Amino acid sequence: MADNGISRRRLLGTAGATGLALGAGGGAVGYAAASSGSGSSSDGVSKAALASLGTDEVMFHGKHQAGITTPTQASGHLAAFDLTAGAGRKEAAALLRRWSATAARLMAGEPVAGDDTSVARDAGPSSLTVTFGFGASFFARTGLAKQRPDALDPLPDFSSDRLDKARSNGDLWVQIGANDSLVAFHALRAIQRDAAGAARVRWQMNGFNRSPGATAHPMTTRNLMGQVDGTNNPKPSDKDFDERVFVPADGDPAWMAGGSYVVVRRIRMLLDSWEKLGRKDQEAVIGRHKSDGSPLTGGTETTEPDLEKTGADGTLVIPVNAHARISRPDQNGGAAMLRRPFSYHDGFDGKGAPDAGLLFVCWQADPVRGFVPVQRKLDRGDALSEFLRHESSGLFAVPGGAAKGEYVGQRLLEG
Description:
The chain is of the alpha+beta class and 415 residues long. It has a domain at 271-393. 20% of the residues lie in helices and 18% in strands. It contains ten helices and nine strands. It has helices at residues 47-51, 89-107, 136-141, 181-195, 241-245, 271-274, 279-286, 323-326, 371-381, 410-413; strands at 75-83, 129-135, 172-178, 199-208, 260-269, 338-339, 342-348, 354-364, 388-398. Strands 1, 2, 3, 4, 5, 6, 7, 8 and 9 form a nine-stranded antiparallel β-sheet that branches. α2 (89-107) runs antiparallel to α4 (181-195). It is found in: Cell envelope. Its cofactor is heme b.
Protein backbone atom coordinates (compact mmCIF):
# COMPACT_ATOMS: atom_id res chain seq x y z
CA MET A 1 0.00 0.00 0.00
CA ALA A 2 1.32 3.45 -0.83
CA ASP A 3 0.88 6.16 1.77
CA ASN A 4 -1.07 8.94 0.11
CA GLY A 5 -0.40 7.94 -3.50
CA ILE A 6 3.36 8.25 -3.24
CA SER A 7 3.71 10.60 -6.22
CA ARG A 8 1.67 12.23 -8.95
CA ARG A 9 4.31 11.26 -11.42
CA ARG A 10 5.32 7.87 -12.76
CA LEU A 11 8.13 6.20 -10.82
CA LEU A 12 11.07 4.88 -12.80
CA GLY A 13 11.36 2.00 -10.41
CA THR A 14 11.95 0.96 -6.85
CA ALA A 15 14.81 -0.73 -5.12
CA GLY A 16 16.18 -1.41 -1.71
CA ALA A 17 13.92 -3.25 0.52
CA THR A 18 16.01 -3.60 3.70
CA GLY A 19 19.42 -3.73 5.00
CA LEU A 20 21.25 -4.22 8.19
CA ALA A 21 18.48 -4.56 10.67
CA LEU A 22 19.96 -2.07 13.07
CA GLY A 23 23.34 -1.33 11.59
CA ALA A 24 21.98 0.29 8.48
CA GLY A 25 18.66 -0.08 6.73
CA GLY A 26 18.03 0.81 3.14
CA GLY A 27 15.17 2.65 1.55
CA ALA A 28 11.66 1.69 2.53
CA VAL A 29 10.62 1.25 -1.08
CA GLY A 30 13.89 2.25 -2.66
CA TYR A 31 14.27 5.55 -4.46
CA ALA A 32 12.27 6.90 -7.33
CA ALA A 33 12.82 9.43 -10.06
CA ALA A 34 10.12 11.14 -12.08
CA SER A 35 9.93 10.48 -15.78
CA SER A 36 8.08 12.36 -18.47
CA GLY A 37 8.68 9.61 -20.97
CA SER A 38 11.54 11.29 -22.79
CA GLY A 39 14.61 9.46 -24.04
CA SER A 40 17.64 7.96 -22.39
CA SER A 41 21.33 8.59 -22.81
CA SER A 42 23.68 6.05 -24.34
CA ASP A 43 24.40 4.50 -20.94
CA GLY A 44 20.71 3.91 -20.26
CA VAL A 45 20.20 6.67 -17.70
CA SER A 46 16.92 8.49 -18.24
CA LYS A 47 17.52 12.14 -19.05
CA ALA A 48 14.13 12.96 -17.57
CA ALA A 49 15.08 11.27 -14.30
CA LEU A 50 17.95 13.71 -13.84
CA ALA A 51 16.05 16.80 -14.98
CA SER A 52 12.63 16.51 -13.38
CA LEU A 53 13.23 15.44 -9.79
CA GLY A 54 11.88 18.77 -8.57
CA THR A 55 8.43 18.07 -9.98
CA ASP A 56 7.82 14.93 -7.91
CA GLU A 57 5.03 15.61 -5.41
CA VAL A 58 3.89 13.49 -2.47
CA MET A 59 0.35 13.97 -1.19
CA PHE A 60 -0.03 15.37 2.33
CA HIS A 61 -3.61 14.24 2.95
CA GLY A 62 -4.46 10.55 3.09
CA LYS A 63 -5.00 7.46 5.22
CA HIS A 64 -1.38 7.37 6.38
CA GLN A 65 1.10 10.16 6.84
CA ALA A 66 3.66 10.61 4.10
CA GLY A 67 7.27 9.67 4.81
CA ILE A 68 6.55 6.10 5.92
CA THR A 69 6.33 4.17 2.66
CA THR A 70 7.43 7.09 0.52
CA PRO A 71 10.59 6.21 -1.45
CA THR A 72 13.70 7.27 0.43
CA GLN A 73 14.81 10.83 -0.33
CA ALA A 74 18.35 12.16 -0.75
CA SER A 75 18.22 14.67 2.11
CA GLY A 76 16.56 14.48 5.49
CA HIS A 77 16.18 16.14 8.88
CA LEU A 78 14.94 14.63 12.13
CA ALA A 79 13.93 16.89 15.02
CA ALA A 80 12.29 16.61 18.42
CA PHE A 81 10.51 19.45 20.19
CA ASP A 82 9.43 19.96 23.79
CA LEU A 83 6.37 22.06 24.59
CA THR A 84 7.28 25.35 26.26
CA ALA A 85 6.45 26.04 29.90
CA GLY A 86 2.74 26.68 30.24
CA ALA A 87 1.85 25.19 26.86
CA GLY A 88 -0.76 22.45 27.02
CA ARG A 89 -3.42 20.75 24.93
CA LYS A 90 -4.82 23.97 23.44
CA GLU A 91 -1.40 25.21 22.35
CA ALA A 92 -0.43 21.78 21.04
CA ALA A 93 -3.58 21.62 18.91
CA ALA A 94 -2.90 25.06 17.47
CA LEU A 95 0.70 24.05 16.71
CA LEU A 96 -0.31 20.84 14.92
CA ARG A 97 -2.85 22.84 12.95
CA ARG A 98 -0.12 25.28 11.85
CA TRP A 99 2.36 22.51 11.15
CA SER A 100 -0.15 20.56 9.04
CA ALA A 101 -1.08 23.64 6.99
CA THR A 102 2.59 24.45 6.40
CA ALA A 103 3.46 20.87 5.46
CA ALA A 104 0.56 20.65 3.01
CA ARG A 105 1.65 23.86 1.24
CA LEU A 106 5.34 22.96 1.10
CA MET A 107 4.69 19.40 -0.10
CA ALA A 108 2.63 20.90 -2.94
CA GLY A 109 5.55 23.13 -3.88
CA GLU A 110 3.91 26.30 -2.58
CA PRO A 111 5.54 28.91 -0.30
CA VAL A 112 4.53 29.03 3.34
CA ALA A 113 1.80 31.44 4.32
CA GLY A 114 3.01 34.87 5.37
CA ASP A 115 6.70 35.75 5.29
CA ASP A 116 8.38 32.95 3.33
CA THR A 117 12.17 32.83 3.64
CA SER A 118 12.61 32.08 -0.11
CA VAL A 119 15.20 29.41 0.70
CA ALA A 120 13.56 27.04 -1.80
CA ARG A 121 12.52 29.65 -4.34
CA ASP A 122 12.60 28.27 -7.93
CA ALA A 123 12.46 24.64 -6.71
CA GLY A 124 9.54 22.28 -7.05
CA PRO A 125 8.31 20.04 -4.23
CA SER A 126 11.15 17.56 -4.85
CA SER A 127 9.32 14.66 -3.16
CA LEU A 128 9.16 16.58 0.11
CA THR A 129 7.50 14.80 3.02
CA VAL A 130 6.86 16.07 6.55
CA THR A 131 5.81 13.53 9.20
CA PHE A 132 4.67 14.23 12.78
CA GLY A 133 4.66 12.10 15.93
CA PHE A 134 4.10 12.24 19.70
CA GLY A 135 6.52 11.10 22.40
CA ALA A 136 5.46 9.51 25.69
CA SER A 137 6.02 12.79 27.58
CA PHE A 138 3.56 14.66 25.34
CA PHE A 139 0.53 13.05 26.94
CA ALA A 140 1.22 14.16 30.51
CA ARG A 141 2.08 17.67 29.28
CA THR A 142 -1.30 17.99 27.54
CA GLY A 143 -3.55 16.30 30.11
CA LEU A 144 -4.04 13.30 27.82
CA ALA A 145 -2.32 10.67 29.95
CA LYS A 146 -5.27 8.28 29.58
CA GLN A 147 -4.83 8.40 25.79
CA ARG A 148 -1.15 7.42 25.88
CA PRO A 149 -0.69 4.11 24.03
CA ASP A 150 0.84 1.19 25.94
CA ALA A 151 3.18 0.82 22.95
CA LEU A 152 4.95 4.01 24.10
CA ASP A 153 6.25 2.33 27.26
CA PRO A 154 10.03 2.96 27.50
CA LEU A 155 12.26 0.76 25.38
CA PRO A 156 14.42 -1.69 27.38
CA ASP A 157 18.10 -0.99 27.95
CA PHE A 158 20.56 -2.64 25.57
CA SER A 159 24.24 -3.32 26.23
CA SER A 160 25.31 -1.40 23.12
CA ASP A 161 23.53 1.76 24.30
CA ARG A 162 25.60 4.83 25.06
CA LEU A 163 22.61 7.16 25.02
CA ASP A 164 22.75 10.93 25.36
CA LYS A 165 19.51 11.86 27.12
CA ALA A 166 19.66 15.38 25.73
CA ARG A 167 19.47 13.96 22.20
CA SER A 168 16.81 11.36 22.96
CA ASN A 169 13.00 11.30 23.14
CA GLY A 170 10.95 14.53 23.21
CA ASP A 171 7.31 15.64 23.32
CA LEU A 172 6.95 15.97 19.54
CA TRP A 173 8.89 14.48 16.63
CA VAL A 174 9.21 15.68 13.04
CA GLN A 175 10.75 13.86 10.07
CA ILE A 176 11.51 15.81 6.89
CA GLY A 177 12.75 14.30 3.63
CA ALA A 178 13.26 15.72 0.13
CA ASN A 179 15.33 15.11 -2.98
CA ASP A 180 16.73 18.65 -2.79
CA SER A 181 18.68 19.84 0.25
CA LEU A 182 17.39 23.42 0.06
CA VAL A 183 13.79 22.19 -0.08
CA ALA A 184 14.41 20.02 2.99
CA PHE A 185 16.06 22.87 4.91
CA HIS A 186 13.28 25.26 3.93
CA ALA A 187 10.74 22.88 5.46
CA LEU A 188 12.82 22.46 8.62
CA ARG A 189 13.10 26.21 9.07
CA ALA A 190 9.38 26.71 8.46
CA ILE A 191 8.48 24.04 11.03
CA GLN A 192 10.80 25.61 13.60
CA ARG A 193 9.35 29.08 12.99
CA ASP A 194 5.81 27.76 13.35
CA ALA A 195 6.73 26.30 16.74
CA ALA A 196 7.76 29.64 18.24
CA GLY A 197 6.00 30.26 21.56
CA ALA A 198 4.55 26.75 21.73
CA ALA A 199 7.55 24.39 21.48
CA ARG A 200 11.33 24.57 21.38
CA VAL A 201 13.82 22.33 19.61
CA ARG A 202 15.11 19.56 21.89
CA TRP A 203 17.44 17.99 19.33
CA GLN A 204 17.89 17.99 15.57
CA MET A 205 19.87 15.74 13.21
CA ASN A 206 20.70 15.90 9.50
CA GLY A 207 20.96 12.94 7.14
CA PHE A 208 21.45 11.98 3.53
CA ASN A 209 21.07 9.10 1.09
CA ARG A 210 22.20 8.45 -2.46
CA SER A 211 20.51 10.84 -4.88
CA PRO A 212 17.99 9.46 -7.37
CA GLY A 213 19.58 9.18 -10.79
CA ALA A 214 23.12 8.78 -9.42
CA THR A 215 23.30 5.18 -10.65
CA ALA A 216 22.69 3.74 -14.11
CA HIS A 217 19.51 2.10 -12.85
CA PRO A 218 17.54 2.07 -9.58
CA MET A 219 19.37 -0.14 -7.10
CA THR A 220 19.78 -0.80 -3.42
CA THR A 221 21.80 1.88 -1.70
CA ARG A 222 25.00 1.45 0.30
CA ASN A 223 25.65 2.55 3.85
CA LEU A 224 28.77 4.29 5.16
CA MET A 225 30.42 0.91 5.73
CA GLY A 226 30.24 0.38 1.97
CA GLN A 227 27.74 -2.46 2.30
CA VAL A 228 24.76 -2.89 0.01
CA ASP A 229 22.05 -2.00 2.47
CA GLY A 230 18.41 -2.74 1.90
CA THR A 231 17.50 -6.25 0.86
CA ASN A 232 14.77 -7.85 2.97
CA ASN A 233 12.55 -4.99 4.14
CA PRO A 234 8.82 -5.71 4.27
CA LYS A 235 7.35 -4.65 0.92
CA PRO A 236 3.97 -2.96 0.37
CA SER A 237 3.10 -5.89 -1.89
CA ASP A 238 3.45 -8.36 1.02
CA LYS A 239 0.08 -9.63 2.19
CA ASP A 240 0.91 -8.85 5.83
CA PHE A 241 2.59 -5.49 5.17
CA ASP A 242 -0.18 -3.35 6.69
CA GLU A 243 -0.45 -5.70 9.66
CA ARG A 244 3.25 -5.29 10.41
CA VAL A 245 3.55 -1.55 9.82
CA PHE A 246 0.23 0.18 10.56
CA VAL A 247 -2.18 0.21 13.50
CA PRO A 248 -5.48 -1.39 12.37
CA ALA A 249 -8.74 0.53 12.15
CA ASP A 250 -10.01 -1.19 15.31
CA GLY A 251 -6.72 -0.74 17.15
CA ASP A 252 -6.26 0.70 20.61
CA PRO A 253 -6.26 3.62 21.16
CA ALA A 254 -8.74 4.54 18.44
CA TRP A 255 -6.95 7.79 17.54
CA MET A 256 -3.95 5.77 16.32
CA ALA A 257 -5.93 3.99 13.56
CA GLY A 258 -3.87 4.07 10.38
CA GLY A 259 -0.83 5.26 12.31
CA SER A 260 2.48 3.62 13.12
CA TYR A 261 5.16 3.60 15.80
CA VAL A 262 8.64 4.82 14.93
CA VAL A 263 11.89 4.01 16.70
CA VAL A 264 14.65 6.53 16.02
CA ARG A 265 18.28 5.74 16.91
CA ARG A 266 21.47 7.65 16.16
CA ILE A 267 23.92 4.81 15.54
CA ARG A 268 27.54 5.78 15.20
CA MET A 269 29.62 3.53 12.99
CA LEU A 270 33.17 3.01 14.24
CA LEU A 271 34.54 3.34 10.75
CA ASP A 272 38.24 3.46 11.67
CA SER A 273 37.93 0.01 13.27
CA TRP A 274 35.69 -1.32 10.50
CA GLU A 275 38.00 -0.23 7.72
CA LYS A 276 40.94 -2.05 9.31
CA LEU A 277 39.19 -5.33 8.49
CA GLY A 278 39.91 -6.94 5.15
CA ARG A 279 37.03 -7.41 2.76
CA LYS A 280 36.68 -11.12 3.58
CA ASP A 281 36.42 -10.39 7.30
CA GLN A 282 33.88 -7.61 6.67
CA GLU A 283 31.79 -10.01 4.61
CA ALA A 284 31.93 -12.60 7.40
CA VAL A 285 30.61 -10.02 9.88
CA ILE A 286 27.67 -9.20 7.60
CA GLY A 287 27.12 -12.57 5.94
CA ARG A 288 26.91 -11.04 2.46
CA HIS A 289 29.29 -10.16 -0.34
CA LYS A 290 30.29 -6.50 -0.35
CA SER A 291 30.26 -6.25 -4.13
CA ASP A 292 26.57 -6.92 -4.75
CA GLY A 293 24.90 -7.81 -1.44
CA SER A 294 24.46 -11.48 -2.33
CA PRO A 295 24.62 -13.98 0.56
CA LEU A 296 27.94 -15.74 1.11
CA THR A 297 26.17 -18.98 0.18
CA GLY A 298 25.69 -17.77 -3.40
CA GLY A 299 23.08 -16.32 -5.72
CA THR A 300 21.99 -12.72 -6.11
CA GLU A 301 21.11 -10.03 -3.61
CA THR A 302 17.56 -11.34 -3.27
CA THR A 303 18.53 -15.03 -2.96
CA GLU A 304 17.59 -16.54 0.39
CA PRO A 305 20.76 -17.34 2.38
CA ASP A 306 21.39 -21.04 3.02
CA LEU A 307 21.99 -20.87 6.76
CA GLU A 308 22.94 -24.56 6.98
CA LYS A 309 25.56 -24.58 4.23
CA THR A 310 29.09 -25.48 5.31
CA GLY A 311 32.43 -25.06 3.62
CA ALA A 312 35.15 -27.63 2.87
CA ASP A 313 36.39 -27.31 6.46
CA GLY A 314 32.95 -28.11 7.85
CA THR A 315 32.28 -24.63 9.25
CA LEU A 316 29.19 -22.61 8.43
CA VAL A 317 29.64 -20.43 5.34
CA ILE A 318 27.54 -17.72 7.02
CA PRO A 319 28.97 -17.52 10.56
CA VAL A 320 26.71 -18.13 13.51
CA ASN A 321 27.05 -14.49 14.62
CA ALA A 322 26.78 -12.90 11.16
CA HIS A 323 24.43 -9.94 11.05
CA ALA A 324 22.44 -11.33 8.12
CA ARG A 325 21.72 -14.52 10.09
CA ILE A 326 20.79 -12.92 13.40
CA SER A 327 18.59 -10.16 11.96
CA ARG A 328 16.43 -12.38 9.72
CA PRO A 329 12.72 -12.35 10.67
CA ASP A 330 12.61 -16.17 10.68
CA GLN A 331 15.36 -16.10 13.31
CA ASN A 332 13.32 -13.69 15.45
CA GLY A 333 9.87 -15.24 15.63
CA GLY A 334 8.79 -13.37 12.51
CA ALA A 335 9.53 -9.95 14.02
CA ALA A 336 9.88 -7.36 11.28
CA MET A 337 9.93 -3.60 10.84
CA LEU A 338 10.08 -1.21 7.92
CA ARG A 339 13.50 0.46 7.99
CA ARG A 340 13.80 3.89 6.38
CA PRO A 341 16.98 5.57 7.64
CA PHE A 342 19.41 8.29 6.62
CA SER A 343 23.19 8.26 6.83
CA TYR A 344 24.87 11.10 8.68
CA HIS A 345 28.31 12.69 9.04
CA ASP A 346 28.85 15.32 11.72
CA GLY A 347 32.55 15.98 11.28
CA PHE A 348 35.40 14.41 13.28
CA ASP A 349 36.00 13.97 16.99
CA GLY A 350 39.05 15.09 18.93
CA LYS A 351 40.96 11.97 17.90
CA GLY A 352 40.21 12.51 14.22
CA ALA A 353 37.67 9.71 14.02
CA PRO A 354 34.60 10.40 11.85
CA ASP A 355 31.38 11.08 13.75
CA ALA A 356 29.35 9.27 11.13
CA GLY A 357 26.83 6.49 10.87
CA LEU A 358 23.11 5.93 10.63
CA LEU A 359 20.02 7.86 11.64
CA PHE A 360 18.08 4.65 12.06
CA VAL A 361 14.33 5.04 11.56
CA CYS A 362 12.05 1.99 11.69
CA TRP A 363 8.28 1.68 11.49
CA GLN A 364 6.01 -0.97 12.98
CA ALA A 365 2.48 -1.49 14.25
CA ASP A 366 3.90 -2.42 17.66
CA PRO A 367 7.53 -1.86 18.72
CA VAL A 368 7.28 -4.67 21.29
CA ARG A 369 6.75 -7.09 18.40
CA GLY A 370 8.97 -5.28 15.90
CA PHE A 371 12.08 -3.45 17.08
CA VAL A 372 12.50 -4.87 20.57
CA PRO A 373 12.91 -8.63 19.89
CA VAL A 374 15.27 -8.04 16.97
CA GLN A 375 17.46 -5.60 18.89
CA ARG A 376 17.55 -7.91 21.91
CA LYS A 377 18.89 -10.71 19.76
CA LEU A 378 21.40 -8.46 18.02
CA ASP A 379 22.48 -7.19 21.42
CA ARG A 380 23.30 -10.71 22.56
CA GLY A 381 25.64 -11.79 19.78
CA ASP A 382 25.69 -9.82 16.53
CA ALA A 383 29.22 -9.60 15.12
CA LEU A 384 28.41 -6.14 13.81
CA SER A 385 27.75 -4.72 17.30
CA GLU A 386 31.50 -4.36 17.88
CA PHE A 387 31.53 -1.65 15.22
CA LEU A 388 28.43 0.27 16.31
CA ARG A 389 27.51 2.62 19.14
CA HIS A 390 23.90 3.61 19.81
CA GLU A 391 24.14 7.23 20.96
CA SER A 392 20.54 8.45 21.08
CA SER A 393 17.08 6.94 21.00
CA GLY A 394 13.45 7.90 20.70
CA LEU A 395 10.07 6.19 20.39
CA PHE A 396 7.11 8.08 18.97
CA ALA A 397 3.45 7.44 18.13
CA VAL A 398 2.78 8.66 14.59
CA PRO A 399 -0.97 9.02 14.03
CA GLY A 400 -2.69 8.32 10.77
CA GLY A 401 -2.88 10.87 8.00
CA ALA A 402 -5.18 13.87 7.97
CA ALA A 403 -8.13 14.18 5.63
CA LYS A 404 -8.62 17.45 3.78
CA GLY A 405 -9.79 20.08 6.25
CA GLU A 406 -8.15 18.23 9.16
CA TYR A 407 -4.75 18.40 10.83
CA VAL A 408 -2.48 15.59 11.99
CA GLY A 409 -3.37 14.44 15.50
CA GLN A 410 -6.82 16.06 15.47
CA ARG A 411 -8.54 12.87 16.64
CA LEU A 412 -6.32 12.85 19.72
CA LEU A 413 -6.32 16.54 20.53
CA GLU A 414 -10.02 17.18 19.87
CA GLY A 415 -11.42 13.73 20.66
